[in-house]
Amino acid sequence: MATPENIDWDAIIRDPRFQTLHRRKTLFLWGLMIVSVAYYFLLPVGAAYYQDLFKIKVWGVINVGLLFALSEFVVAWAIAVFYSRRAGKEFDQLAAQIAAQYAPKG
Amino acid sequence: MKNPSKKRLLAATLAALVLPCAPAFAQVSTGGNYTLTLAVFAVVIALTVWVTYIAAKRVRSASDFYTAGGGVSGFQNGWAIAGDYLSAASFLGIAGLISLYGYDGFMYSVGWLVAYISVLLLIAEPCRNIGRYTLSDILAYRNDPRKTRIFGALSTITVSTFYLTAQMVGAGVLVKALIGIDYEVSVLCVGVLMLGYVLFGGMVATTWVQIIKAVLLVCASIIIVVLVWAPYGFSLPGFLADVVADPKVQARVASLLGDPAKTMSATELGQRFLEPGLYFKAPIDQISLGMALVFGTGGLPHILMRFFTVPSAQQARKSVVWAMVVIGGFYVLTLFLGFGAAKHVGPAVIAGVDAGGNFAGPLLAQYVGGGPDSFFGNFMLAFVSAVAFATIVAVVSGLVLASASAMAHDLYVGVVRAGKETSPKAQVTAARVATIIFGAMAILIGIAAKGQNVAVLVGLAFAVAASANFPCVLLTLYWKRCNTGGIVAGLLIGTIAAVGLTLVSPNLTYPLAVKAAAHKVLDGQAAKRSTDDEAIASGDEAAVAKAKKDLAALDKAAIKAKADIAKWGDETTSFMGLEKPAFSLKNPGIISIPLGFLSVILGSLLFRDKRAEGMWNEVYARQNTGIMVSKASLGH
């Protein structure tokens, strides 16, 4: 059975597949993270400094501010789905290949 | 069920279930049917007790106790996270804020969902891959286990205790108002029930109590929203147009705005309810609060712990996605609960029952069921009240489990008995002893903090989690050079900064300011009184009525102002010995979070550690590949 001592961690890190995984994950995760945090803070900033914009009525009594707040939910869910799709399709497979080679089960 | 002996019998049954002593009855402020409420409570409690009974048979090892043996599915865990996270503050508080302040309340709810994006992208999967039971497991992986475990455990206990205190005080107030038992008895009820779940059923029971609670909460909300929204053919603009056209809502906006409202038409006043700025007045403070929410969630020990209950990183990911569906969906429903309560119950009535608006949801439930005199109305009130009660018990269970694991697993097994073999049986015993200690502490703190304003404590828990735990977890996972020095510095300085800034913030009471405001009220009265006297002398009927009303309000204000002056006497300084706040923001996050990150970075650079850097490859490979992820079947 695998123990930390008999797994060659340095070799995993050097493996080109791991390097690919690392590069793609880093770009994708931090990219999404920055987009989502920036989008979130637009809400309190807009509510504080762009009230005239937020007050514009667009659908009956519903104004830009309400739609923007609702869009925060949609964007959060979209990011969650977007990330899980890509992770499930791509990252998990790469990780499983690496794990199978360096830490065989049993 | 008007028969008093039947009533007593039911009460006694409930009491026998949860309490060593019979509850003392008091006045019900929401006017519900008391027997019915108790019956619904008994059903909900019986359900959770039954689940605990089954769960108790499955708890044998420490892994069962702390993580339900890692056997929870992603879907189940998603619901449990929602049950753990949607505390009474968010369940009752946000609906209340929307009903009292409109748009700002809804905007506040957004941060609670967005918080899970950082958990999903950066925290959940790596933590599942390298951790086992606690936050400190992650921090200790490539660092000095002794030091990181001590400080990690202290930080876990600090955050959980702040959160716990707010929940226990909330429990006392809420249960007292909803079913009319005394504050102390309510706190004791919640504490004893929670202890029962955690002590016998460990994480298995806690998980199921949280799932049951989340399902009940979502069901209750959907029923109310359908009843509120259906009359408008499920049209959003139609519903909101009716809300803003309501005179109760317009009157509320007028009273919030004061003088500027005098030039506004009724339509303008109503529309103002859907616009920002009625609650949040200081943008920087609000951004600071947003930062604590968005970064703090990933540092809450009781939430992190939930990721160890699933078998793999994939399931951890699935948990967060499901949690986001449930939590986000719930907040969208809250929009209707809040605005619906504003229209049907009215902000003035809601604020009259509780200044924080906590009863908006329960009162709306009563209204849509048919009102205070109908059976279904009271059934709905009872149902929502029982859900609120289950909410508190579920959240408190998660918090006590997190604290107990920090004490038993990190401090006792990891530090006191470091290097020695602790038998699985002794580990479970240690966990149960720690649970009793924290359960008793929760009850005592809850009773001691009676009447205190504890709302600030939830914010503080998030601020400490965001300033101390989050930078440490994030940097030990993603920064090669992060080491023991950085972790200890980050935990210490992050916590001290968040707590310290809150202690000198405007959250505390400053007697000089209170007295100055009171004197101003009294000084301003003479002029107003003379105008009112003139109006009365004029003899015009409408003017006389208005003046008399004004005078009565002035009398009331004068009594309150005099009481304030008498209460603070000669005191000139706050609890911290300050005459005025030394820090102008209510939320410390915007300063303390960057400070926490800076401390981890500087601490790591100052105290270089070859071992931590040497183990980086292992940590990084493991967190990305899931090699050797801890599983129940592998034991330790």
Instruction: Determine the number of helices of chain B (DSSP H or I, runs of at least 4 residues).
Output: 26
Helix content range of chain B: over 70%
Structural class of chain B: mainly alpha
**Overall pLDDT level of chain A:** 90
The level of helicity of chain A is over 70%
Q: Which stretches of chain B of 5+ consecutive residues score pLDDT under 50?
A: 1-29, 632-636
The radius of gyration computed from the alpha-carbon positions of chain B, rounded to a whole number of angstroms, is 26 Å
- Cα end-to-end separation of chain B: 55 Å
Shape of chain A: elongated
Description:
- The complex is a heterodimer of chains A (106) and B (636).
- By secondary structure, chain A is mainly alpha-helical.
- Chain A has one domain (21-102).
- Chain A has four helices and two strands; from the N terminus they run αααββα.
- A two-stranded antiparallel ribbon of chain A has the order 1-2.
- In chain A, β1 and β2 form a beta hairpin.
- The longest helix of chain A has 39 residues, at 64-102.
- Chain A starts with 8 loop residues before the first helix and ends with a helix.
- The model of chain A has no long low-confidence stretch (mean pLDDT 90).
- With 636 residues, chain B is an all-alpha fold.
- Chain B has two domains: 36-510 and 577-631, Sodium/glucose cotransporter (Up-down Bundle), CATH 1.20.1730; 515-568.
- Chain B has 26 helices and no strands.
- In chain B, α5 (88-101) runs antiparallel to α6 (103-130), α9 (183-229) crosses α15 and α9 crosses α19.
- Chain B is globular.
- Chain B starts with a helix and ends in an 11-residue tail after the last helix.
- The chains are: A mainly alpha (106), B mainly alpha (636).
- Chains A and B meet through α1, α2, β2 and α4 of A and α6, α10, α13, α15 and α26 of B.
